[in-house]
Amino acid sequence: MRLGLILGDQLTHDLASLRVLDPKVDRLIMAEVRDEATYVKHHKQKIALLFSAMRHFAQELRDAGWQVDYYEYNSQGNFKSLFDVVAHYTKEYSAERLVLTQCGEYRLQNAMDREWSKALNIPVEVYGDDRFIATTKEFADWADGRKQLRMEYFYREMRRKTGYLMKDGEPEGGQWNYDADNRKKWDGKTPFPNPPVFERDDIDREVIKLVEENFDDHPGSLEDFHWATTKAQASTALGFFIQHCLTNFGDFQDAMVRGEKALFHSLLSPYLNCGLLTAKQVCDAAQRAWNDDRAPLNAVEGFIRQIIGWREYVRGIYWLHMPRYAKQNTLKNKRSLPRYYWDGNTKMACMSDCFKNTFDHAYAHHIQRLMVTGNFALLTGIKPEEICDWYLAVYADAYDWVELPNTLGMVMHADGGYLGSKPYAASGNYIHKMSDYCSHCHYSVKTQIEEDSCPFNSLYWHFIDRHRDDFKNNHRMGMIYRTLDKMKDDKKDRIIARADDLLSRLDNL
Ligand code: FAD
Ligand code: DLZ
Ligand code: SF4
Q1: Separation of 476 CA from ligand 1 center, angstroms?
Q2: Is residue 5 classed as helix, strand or coil in its secondary structure?
Q3: What is the residue with the minimal CA distance to atom 10 of ligand 1?
């Protein structure tokens, strides 16, 4: 008989390895283990979501006729790692081979490739994860020979491959991308839908108690734990998004509103990433909404692009360049992550709201991650590995394959502009334009050099100034340097002095 190992982010019934195994003779293993739950200090809600979804999935597998050995956290045996559990059951059943679907994270896949087969003394058979639209080989072929990659061109390939929003070989509406229509501040009127709240069952309650007892020192709170933990609940969440949010998704995709958790975002990433939903299922639902005239093209295109474009693109980059990718630090950042990334305690209203969303819900929407907490880390020169570990820990959807390229590449520009051609650096003006934060802030977004001036304003010019050599040949940055060069010397000096002061205060926190 063969043993099938199902990982916590592989909760999908037609997983590649499950298609190969035979429920009549083979057995499955799933395990909650300390090594996976603590390799970074995952948010309590992320652990609760995963453990509960894993337990529900194991039950569904048993109902479907599989024999499943499920190792619960802290059970007898006291296994610390997935390897310990696999070694135990390999021996117990005298398994002939171990079968699994490729791991999401390089860390684990690499350990398996290098050590597991030898240590277990049986072959380890790994199948490609075809829940993704593109295989890692397809991405590598597309990237081959390109000095710099552009998501937009890869996305077009994925549109052609899947046929989403395509008509007679051409993009619906004649354009590939409707982003120009998607950058509006919230109009203050369109009501925000209330995402579904799922009733908790005995499994959820038991897991929540387990997390409270065993992961007390991990960030976040379990008070507002509303995530779906079954495939059926995740499908309800998808239906809710399509019916109540998709229409406005495009218009307000970049907007931020104080105290609003998700606006019109889908909140589907944790389910996509652990397998309760698949990319195809989600995109099919969006395509149907377009076919039936239930949502406008700018919204449906923007949403599908995030999934078959960005999500696939970052995964492709990850597998093409790991482990080298994780070590890059092109801008030579040296600063440690400020304490308030962990305690949320800051007078900057934008940062404070993003931290609150993060700790209360293990969630923040894309622009909060990119243009607030990310932008601040970029401008202040935080070490890439520290900010990457933070994003990997605090979000329910965070896995290395998707978090790392987004943080190290998109936010920190630490890959030298390989993933994105220009750093997403911005002053407080951008945050002011896209949110209502500044009117509730201790700092003034209108000024640069006063004691109460918005920190982003001077830090932005400090970043531009200190990285002149890094960006002088980047034609997309030309206008910014021309603006800096036109600034009067004494004004520029005062801005840089204000930023220096802020940075030294950060270092002494
Ligand atoms: P929506 O706005 O509703 O978007 C729909 C879906 O598109 C998402 O569910 C997600 O699957 C996909 N998507 C959108 N943007 C991206 C992107 N840039 N990369 C990959 N997929 C994308 N996303 C993760 O899934 N896991 C992470 O660990 C993660 N870390 C991030 C770290 C940083 C610094 C930044 C800037 C972004 C990160 N993202 C990550 C991308 C994005 O912020 C989240 O996917 C999104 O906020 C999830 O919320 P949602 O489901 O409501 O998304
Ligand atoms: C994120 C996570 C956590 C918190 N716990 C477990 C676990 O106990 N068991 C498990 O199989 N998976 C867990 N995961 C997801 C894994 O970290 C994920 O499967 C790998 O990182 C993918 O390579
Ligand atoms: Fe953020 Fe600056 Fe606006 Fe305050 S003034 S909310 S710090 S952008």
Answers
A1: 25
A2: strand
A3: 269
Cis status, amide bond into 323, omega within 30 of 0: yes
**β-sheet bridge partners, residue 98:** 3, 124
Largest CA distance in the chain: 79
CB 150 within 8 A of CB 176: no
Q: What is the pLDDT of residues 205-220, one digit of tens each?
A: 999 999 999 999 999 9
Question: 190 is written with which tokens?
Answer: 């369109």
**Smallest Cα–Cα separation from 289: which of 238, 233, 251, 234?**
238
Are the C-beta atoms of 32 and 71 separated by less than 8 Å?
yes
131-176, pLDDT tens digit by residue?
A: 999 999 999 999 998 877 899 999 999 999 999 999 999 999 999 9
Residue 33 Cβ inside 6 Å of ligand 2? The answer reads yes
**Short-list 431, 410, 411, 427, CA closest to 419:** 410
Q: Record the pTM.
A: 0.97
Read off the amino acid at residue 284.
D
Q: CA nearest 51: which of 238, 239, 264, 204?
A: 204
pLDDT at residue 266 in the model: 97
